[in-house]
Amino acid sequence: MQRRSLLKALALLPALPLLGNAPLSLAQAIASSITPLDKPHDAWRKLLPPEAYAVLFEEDTEAPRSSPLNQEKRDGTFVCAACYLPLFASQDKYESGTGWPSFTKPIDGHMNTKRDFKLFFPRTEYHCARCGGHQGHVFDDGPKPRGERWCNNGVALRFIPEGEPLPELRS
Ligand SMILES: [Zn+2]
Q1: 56-100 tens-digit pLDDT
Q2: Which residues hold their Cβ within 5 A of ligand 1, which is an ion?
């Protein structure tokens, strides 16, 4: 009897890692049309300021209220600070009071998510679909109707005001 329940439990094991990797329903990754870049981290290290590199490729978090983008209220586009892929539109930015630039949603298909167990509770980490650079974490306490808060490191973004051309994607 005991042996049978052990076998039953073992049969369930392959399903467990799948559960662990499942993104929160609120952050279901949309099938991305972006071709991922295959660029070694060392190459990005040479192109980026150290504090941007630490966030984008070592999953560091900037200090709250440290980014000038917290105050950015103009119309425009927020692009990835590494590869320049557009990630957020200014109309989706809002003041969350957290001290980090916050958005209700990213540009469709331009962000991928994964579960992150760095803190005691699992969070959903998200990153640029093109270069894989870490941007921030998504939470479910955002404004209605979507209820999402995309909490972003300002140093991982670059703001391009409306009227200025978007930079050419960096390879
Ligand atoms: Zn990128």
Answers
A1: 999 999 999 999 999 999 999 999 999 999 999 999 999 999 999
A2: 80, 82-83, 85, 128, 130-131, 133
pLDDT tens per residue, range 22-34: 444 433 444 567 9
- Give the Å distance between the CA of 54 and the centre of ligand 1: 14
Domains detected in the chain: 37-161 (2.170.150.20)
80 is catalytic: no
Q: How far is CA 113 from CA 21, 28, 108, 139, in A?
A: 10, 8, 13, 12
Predicted confidence (pLDDT) per residue in 101-135, tens digit: 999 999 999 999 988 777 667 789 999 999 999 99
How far is C-alpha 142 from the geometric centre of its chain's CA atoms? 15
